[in-house]
């Protein structure tokens, strides 16, 4: 019988993109004449504790003293934090609903702002472990409960010792207090979460560096919103593409490499390719980029990219023949949309297909040569595997057919193998 698994998740800079006490300070001290200096002190205390250079208890005491906060400030903070949930956590809300008994939020932060945020994701209130504030009768925060083990140095270790959980425990966090759980032997593995911040001293101690929650779910073979973590998709940017174009793709979570030339070592692994205006890719090199799914060109690609070869290889191309200055935003967004939802809207070489995401379904993409009978073969395979089709869309041009199928049935991997083996298949992938 398989051992039960528990997922011990940090809150600040992990479940949310920010450090909540730092954000609370910006709310409570907004009109303070020395606010910038105080913000800096609070951030410094946060970082020193997260890097293990200052005891957590000392850091917490100093930060609370500096806050000058009250319950009205807390209400504003909660509203703010609900908009700052880490993207990879928010898109995997279904995981938390399914594993509500197994997920624990363990944080040195405070229940007063943590509970309203994580409760939206089906996390049980009894599974939220954090500090609590002490307030005066008029709602002013003056202290915190010093009897709570999470207010002390090594507090997470002390708490888990008290809980005595039995099974495989996985810790996900960004700071030293999260690593201490691994060091103590209380958890099986420590995953350093770097979607929001990467602390080098913590990365060196981690069992696994996880740039997103999708990555954590993927390596542990757990249900997830997207089939393949975006941080594992290599996006190569060539030439002077401009920082804004790079940031659009980086913000979406892809693994970015910015290079002056298309280096040989990247050819076989690149999944996305963004080229600055004036850059060129040799046909022979392009033919060996077998994992390449989409190519963006910040200008007119004619004569610089072999569009026919791209089409034959199932590579969706987005370029801007008119060299509109907006292309530094437009082209990378089109590339990201294709990778995220299969949308080929305004592609230079593919049939245009634009679809909304369907919740609680799996989206499969099948690119094939435009010959008769392919869709019949695809649907025969779905029927053999008892697959329930929610929606299916096919667009063609003289060269290729582009089919998207949404299914809401659990599937086995043999289904994929069968779809890939269909004659005239060019590319097949699962989006989510």
Strand line-up of the largest beta sheet = 3-2-1-6-7-8
Give the overall form. globular
Q: So what's the oligomer here?
A: single chain
CATH architectural designation of the largest domain: 3-Layer(aba) Sandwich
Share of residues in helices: 25-40%
* CATH level 1 name of the largest domain: Alpha Beta
- CATH-defined topology of the largest domain: Rossmann fold
Count up the domains.
3
Instruction: Tell me what portion of residues adopts beta-strand conformation.
Output: 15-25%
**Content-based structural category:** alpha/beta
Could you name the CATH homologous superfamily of the largest domain? HAD superfamily/HAD-like
Summarize the biggest pleated sheet: 6 strands, parallel
Number of strands: 17
Low-confidence runs of at least 5 consecutive residues:
none
Cα-based radius of gyration, to the nearest Å: 25 Å
Number of helices: 18
How far the N terminus sits from the C terminus, by CA atoms, comes to 29 Å
Mean pLDDT comes to 93
General description of the model:
- The chain is α/β, with parallel strands linked by helices and 432 residues long.
- It folds into three domains: 5-219, HAD superfamily/HAD-like (Rossmann fold), CATH 3.40.50.1000; 230-341, 3-Layer(aba) Sandwich (Rossmann fold); 362-430, ACT domain (Alpha-Beta Plaits, 2-Layer Sandwich), CATH 3.30.70.260.
- It has helices spanning 11-15, 20-28, 35-50, 56-67, 71-81, 87-90, 93-98, 111-118, 155-163, 176-183, 200-203, 213-219, 243-251, 283-287, 307-312, 327-341, 374-384, 413-420; strands at 5-9, 103-110, 128-131, 133-135, 141-144, 168-173, 189-193, 208-210, 234-238, 255-259, 272-275, 294-297, 316-319, 362-369, 389-396, 400-407, 425-430.
- Strands 3-2-1-6-7-8 form a six-stranded parallel sheet, sandwiched between helices. The chain has a five-stranded parallel sheet with strand order 10-9-11-12-13.
- α13 (243-251) links the parallel β9 (234-238) and β10.
- α9 packs across α10 (176-183).
- The radius of gyration is 25 Å and the shape is globular.
């Amino acid at each position: 019988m398989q051992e039960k698994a528990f997922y011990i998740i940090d809150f600040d800079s992990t479940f949310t993109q920010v450090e909540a006490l730092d954000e609370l300070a910006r709310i409570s001290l907004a009109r303070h004449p020395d606010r910038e200096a105080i913000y800096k002190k609070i951030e410094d205390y946060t970082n020193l504790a997260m890097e293990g250079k200052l005891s957590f208890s000392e850091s917490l005491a100093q930060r609370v003293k500096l806050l000058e906060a009250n319950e009205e400030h807390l209400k504003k903070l909660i509203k703010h934090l609900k908009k700052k949930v880490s993207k990879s956590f928010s898109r995997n809300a279904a995981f938390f609903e399914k594993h509500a008994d197994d997920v624990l939020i363990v944080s040195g932060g405070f229940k007063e702002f943590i509970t309203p945020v994580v409760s939206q994701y089906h996390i049980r209130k009894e599974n939220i472990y954090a500090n609590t504030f002490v307030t005066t009768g008029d709602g002013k925060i003056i202290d915190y409960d010093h009897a709570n083990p999470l207010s002390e140095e090594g507090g997470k270790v002390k708490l888990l010792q008290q809980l005595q959980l039995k099974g495989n425990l996985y810790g996900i966090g960004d700071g030293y207090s999260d690593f201490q759980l691994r060091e103590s032997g209380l958890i099986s593995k420590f995953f350093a979460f770097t979607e929001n911040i990467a602390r080098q001293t913590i990365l060196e101690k981690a069992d696994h560096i996880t740039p997103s929650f999708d990555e954590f779910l993927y390596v542990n073979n757990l249900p997830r919103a997207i089939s393949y973590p975006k941080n594992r998709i290599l996006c190569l940017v060539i030439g002077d593409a401009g920082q804004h174009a790079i940031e659009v793709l980086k913000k979406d979570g892809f693994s970015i490499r910015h290079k002056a030339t298309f280096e040989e070592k990247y050819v076989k692994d690149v999944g996305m390719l963004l080229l600055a205006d004036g850059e060129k890719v040799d046909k022979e090199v392009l033919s060996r980029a077998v994992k390449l799914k989409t190519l963006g060109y910040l200008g007119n690609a004619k004569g610089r990219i072999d569009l026919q070869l791209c089409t034959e290889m199932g590579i969706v191309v987005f370029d801007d023949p008119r060299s509109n200055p907006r292309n530094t935003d437009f082209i990378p967004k089109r590339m990201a949309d294709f990778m995220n939802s299969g949308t080929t809207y305004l592609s230079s070489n593919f049939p245009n297909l634009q679809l909304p995401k369907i919740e609680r379904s799996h989206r499969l993409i099948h690119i094939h040569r435009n010959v008769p009978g392919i869709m019949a073969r695809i649907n025969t395979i779905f029927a053999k595997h008892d697959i329930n089709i929610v929606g299916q869309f096919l667009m063609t041009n003289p060269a290729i057919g582009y089919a998207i199928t949404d299914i809401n049935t659990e599937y086995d991997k043999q289904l994929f193998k069968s779809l890939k083996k269909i004659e005239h298949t060019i590319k097949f992938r699962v989006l989510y």
